């Protein structure tokens, strides 16, 4: 019978077909659905996150692993009721206004999903007003903003300010990242934190929502 270790190894190697067939076999054998997610699929992505942080895995491999994990999650999720699906918190992910770079942002969204967050990927060129509206609409616990240009990173400051003006700042954690971003900048604009990479962002988000 298929086991969790085989499933996490299949995620680690980004093998969609294997992930799908092992997940199906676990479902068919009556394995607890939450255990398939936590001990197989997310466990695999945890290893991916740790290896990526240590520089032992690279962006394309991480994207493949995340995609294969999603293939497994997509089989399990429809069989669970909304309340049975575990979530550490709801996070809106987006690239800021004027900025079209989405590779790092998509990596972040996939890794956060793999870490157990409910992720809504808003896309690119997201204005402060769009972040605010989406935070209200989805009752988000956190927004994670990405910026790759020195000319667009200022939109992060505008977004934090808009959340303050609207009175929502105390209810929503805000984390930021991207090539030109630093902890110093995060402190300067009053965000809750900065992460240099997607795996560290997952740890930061977990610590802020714990
Ligand atoms: Co652009 N670009 N680009 N580009 N581009 C850079 C960023 C640049 C550094 C290249 C250079 O000049 N050396 C430069 C910025 C200079 C600056 O501002 N300091 C630049 C420029 C100038 C531009 C244009 C203005 C070029 C032009 O048209 N004259 C233009 C702007 C368009 C716009 O956005 N309005 C532009 C366009 C493009 C393409 C469309 C061609 C393409 C984007 C395609 C796409 O995203 N779909 C592109 C690309 C590919 C790059 C480079 C080469 C690669 C970026 C990337 O995807 N890296 C980039 C140079 C470089 O970085 N070496 C460059 C891989 C990705 C995984 O890394 O996004 O950094 P990254 O994400 C990392 C971390 O930063 C972090 O996690 C990831 C790793 O785990 N992270 C977060 C990211 N977001 C996070 C959010 C978090 C936490 C961590 O939240 C908590």
Automatic annotation (TrEMBL):
<keyword id="KW-0479">Metal-binding</keyword>
<feature type="domain" description="B12-binding">
    <location>
        <begin position="88"/>
        <end position="210"/>
    </location>
</feature>
<dbReference type="InterPro" id="IPR050554">
    <property type="entry name" value="Met_Synthase/Corrinoid"/>
</dbReference>
<dbReference type="InterPro" id="IPR036724">
    <property type="entry name" value="Cobalamin-bd_sf"/>
</dbReference>
<keyword id="KW-0170">Cobalt</keyword>
<dbReference type="Pfam" id="PF02310">
    <property type="entry name" value="B12-binding"/>
</dbReference>
<dbReference type="InterPro" id="IPR003759">
    <property type="entry name" value="Cbl-bd_cap"/>
</dbReference>
<protein>
    <submittedName>
        <fullName>Corrinoid protein</fullName>
    </submittedName>
</protein>
<feature type="domain" description="B12-binding N-terminal">
    <location>
        <begin position="1"/>
        <end position="88"/>
    </location>
</feature>
<dbReference type="InterPro" id="IPR006158">
    <property type="entry name" value="Cobalamin-bd"/>
</dbReference>
<dbReference type="InterPro" id="IPR036594">
    <property type="entry name" value="Meth_synthase_dom"/>
</dbReference>
<dbReference type="Pfam" id="PF02607">
    <property type="entry name" value="B12-binding_2"/>
</dbReference>
């Amino acid at each position: 019978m298929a086991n969790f270790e085989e499933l996490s190894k299949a995620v680690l190697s980004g093998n969609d077909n294997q992930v799908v067939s092992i997940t199906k076999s676990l479902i068919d054998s009556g394995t607890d659905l939450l255990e398939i997610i936590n001990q197989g699929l997310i466990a695999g992505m945890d290893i991916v996150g740790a290896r990526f942080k240590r520089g032992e895995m690279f962006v394309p491999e991480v994207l493949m692993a995340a995609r294969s994990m999603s293939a497994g999650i997509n089989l399990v999720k429809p069989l669970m009721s909304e309340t049975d699906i575990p979530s550490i918190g709801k996070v809106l992910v987006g690239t800021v206004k004027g900025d079209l770079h989405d590779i790092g942002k998509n990596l972040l969204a996939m890794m956060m999903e793999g870490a157990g967050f409910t992720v809504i990927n808003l896309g690119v060129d997201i204005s402060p007003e769009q972040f605010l509206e989406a935070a209200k609409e989805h009752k988000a616990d956190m927004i994670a903003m990405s910026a790759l240009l020195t000319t667009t990173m200022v939109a992060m400051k505008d977004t934090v300010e808009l959340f303050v003006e609207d009175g929502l700042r105390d209810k929503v954690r805000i984390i930021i990242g991207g090539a030109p971003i630093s902890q110093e900048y995060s402190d300067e604009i009053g965000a809750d934190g900065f992460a240099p990479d997607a795996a560290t962002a997952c740890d930061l988000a977990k610590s802020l929502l714990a």
